[in-house]
């Protein structure tokens, strides 16, 4: 009899568009991020978690719709200034809901830009090369369209690749001219747009604009692998296409469920809904409202930071759920364009650093500036990651001693604490997932005894690793691949198969 734990996972999604077209993107209630949430636990804990959820639901039964407590009970207007503008009853509901989460509950959040999905379709078949950084190109184009919502470009997305290309070029040229009004603030954007204009040559026709659910599900699968969860069931909230995508991706024991019958789907719905509404509120608060705004610094209203102790406690609880409990690289994931997600995570981390609301109110008027600086720094790190094909530190890293790299290997911030690769007297072959350099040391993340481990390589292999990083940054990534490490005269040599 196996002692291996079995986990039950429940998946819900929001803001999805079964068809992405001009009408969809132009709608007043359109939000660019497709967001999915999954909750899961050891099946032995399910009865206890269910009992606590039913007690929570019974307490707020007056807010049910069709015998379900849904995320629609929280109105977007209540989040104008985030949790600061919540009424007393909704704040109490959120507080009790967040208290349902602890280390037993595994959470996975995934976002994906619908505009990025379209841009990927436009540039299908184009990959990174030593001459063109397609990741950077896709990110920059997506960011430009999401940020400025140029009508002509959005309309042309559905007219054909040739029209889209010309419309995009016209928009970029006009924005470069407009940005010259404030070169100090917009210099980086001007450089990016000029870079895009240099790279844009030709595109292939768009194949389909039907939404593909694989992206969010793939990150959930990676999360399960990272947590070494192999025995599980996955229940998806009544969405046949999503369930089919899950099966195609190799998920085992996939089924569709009814949220009216399964408490865990309602729990996933509430988490997805609260997260989405807060992300949307942040995005709306930071959106440009006029052409004049586009060349000025855009700051959050001070009302976002005017928090009581109770509202600050809410943010701290959500921060623990999203950033601390069962943390992993793939716990919070996104596509190449993830500005809204980064803004959301940065806000949670920024507010969480304050021990009391009085600490915030003591410098209340400066809070928007401080948060803007933190967000700009986070976005700059992400931009660097997009350029670097061997990203290292995840955006949801919250441990002071170590983080999990993109391949799931544990890396210490103090690289001297990293274990060294030793192969003994005979050659040994590993499946190497990634090679990188950090703080003057060469690192290799590899599979060993069915585990992912990150090792420091001997100094002799530093130049070898550095050259591989250079290749990856130019679009030529050789890993994962088999590598044989051979001891020669007391030193290790590496041979890539």
Describe the structure in brief:
The chain has 497 residues and is of the alpha+beta class. The protein has 16 helices and 14 strands. Strands 6-5-1-2-4-7 form a six-stranded mixed β-sheet, sandwiched between helices.
Structural features, described:
With 497 residues, the chain is α+β, with helices and mostly antiparallel strands. It has 3 domains: 7-115 and 209-387, Ribonuclease H-like superfamily/Ribonuclease H (Nucleotidyltransferase, domain 5, 2-Layer Sandwich); 125-199, no CATH class; 408-496, Beta Barrel (OB fold (Dihydrolipoamide Acetyltransferase, E2P)). It contains 16 helices and 14 strands. It has helices at residues 22-26, 46-59, 88-98, 114-122, 134-148, 151-156, 161-179, 183-199, 214-226, 240-248, 263-286, 309-324, 339-352, 357-361, 367-387, 462-473, and strands at residues 7-14, 33-42, 80-83, 106-113, 232-237, 254-257, 332-333, 402-404, 410-412, 428-438, 441-448, 451-456, 481-488, 491-496. The protein has a 6-stranded mixed β-sheet with strand order 6-5-1-2-4-7, with helices on both faces. Strands 12-11-10-13-14 form a 5-stranded antiparallel β-sheet. Strand 13 (481-488) and strand 14 (491-496) form a beta hairpin. Helix 3 (88-98) runs parallel beside helix 12. Mean pLDDT is 85; it is low at 390-397.
Kindly report the oligomeric state of this protein.
Answer: single chain
Q: CATH superfamily of the largest domain, called what?
A: Ribonuclease H-like superfamily/Ribonuclease H
Silhouette: globular
Beta-strand level of the residues, as a percent range? 15-25%
Largest sheet: 6 strands, mixed
Q: What is the correct CATH architecture of the largest domain? A: 2-Layer Sandwich
Order of helices and strands: EHEHEHEHHHHHHEHEHHEHHHEEEEEHEE
């Amino acid at each position: 009899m196996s002692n291996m734990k079995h986990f039950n996972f429940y998946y819900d999604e929001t803001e999805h568009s079964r068809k992405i077209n001009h009408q969809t993107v132009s709608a007043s209630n359109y939000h660019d991020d497709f967001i999915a949430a999954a909750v899961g636990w050891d099946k032995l804990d399910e009865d206890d978690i269910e009992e606590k959820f039913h007690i929570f639901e019974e307490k707020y039964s007056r807010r049910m719709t069709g015998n379900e407590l849904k995320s629609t009970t929280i109105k977007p207007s209540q989040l104008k200034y985030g949790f600061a503008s919540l009424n007393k009853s909704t704040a109490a509901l959120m507080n009790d809901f967040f208290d349902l989460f602890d280390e037993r509950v595994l959470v996975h959040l995934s976002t994906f830009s619908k505009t990025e999905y379209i841009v990927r379709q436009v540039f299908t078949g184009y990959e990174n090369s030593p001459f063109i950084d397609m990741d950077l190109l896709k990110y920059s184009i997506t960011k430009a369209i999401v940020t400025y919502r140029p009508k002509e470009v959005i309309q042309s997305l559905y007219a054909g690749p040739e029209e889209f290309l010309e419309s995009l070029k016209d928009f970029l040229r006009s924005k470069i001219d407009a940005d010259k009004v404030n070169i100090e603030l917009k210099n980086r954007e001007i450089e990016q747009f000029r870079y895009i204009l240099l790279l844009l040559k030709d595109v292939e026709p768009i194949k389909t604009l039907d939404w593909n659910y694989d992206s969010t599900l793939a990150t959930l699968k990676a999360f399960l692998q990272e947590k070494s969860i192999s025995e599980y069931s996955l229940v998806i909230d009544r969405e046949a296409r999503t369930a089919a995508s899950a099966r195609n991706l190799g998920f085992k024991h996939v089924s569709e469920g009814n949220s009216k019958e399964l408490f865990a789907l309602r729990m996933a719905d509430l988490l997805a809904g609260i997260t989405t509404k807060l992300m949307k509120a942040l995005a709306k608060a930071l959106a440009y409202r006029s052409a004049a705004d586009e060349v000025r610094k855009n700051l959050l209203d001070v009302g976002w930071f005017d928090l009581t102790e109770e509202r600050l406690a809410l943010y701290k609880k959500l921060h623990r759920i999203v950033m601390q409990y069962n943390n992993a690289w793939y716990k919070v994931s996104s596509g190449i364009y993830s500005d809204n997600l980064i803004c959301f995570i940065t806000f949670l981390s920024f507010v969480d650093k304050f021990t009391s609301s009085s600490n915030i109110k003591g410098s209340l008027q400066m809070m928007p500036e401080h948060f803007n600086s933190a967000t700009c720094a986070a976005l700059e790190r992400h931009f660097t990651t997009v350029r670097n094909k061997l990203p290292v530190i995840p955006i949801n890293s919250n441990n002071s001693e170590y983080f999990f790299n993109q391949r799931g290997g544990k890396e210490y911030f103090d690289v001297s604490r990293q274990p060294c690769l030793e192969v003994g007297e005979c050659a040994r072959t590993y499946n190497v997932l990634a090679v990188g350099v950090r703080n003057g040391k060469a690192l290799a993340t590899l599979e060993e005894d069915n585990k992912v481990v990150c090792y420091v390589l001997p100094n002799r292999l530093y130049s070898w690793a550095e050259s591989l990083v250079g290749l990856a940054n130019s679009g030529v990534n050789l890993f994962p691949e088999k590598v044989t490490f051979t001891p020669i005269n007391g030193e290790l040599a590496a041979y890539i198969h």
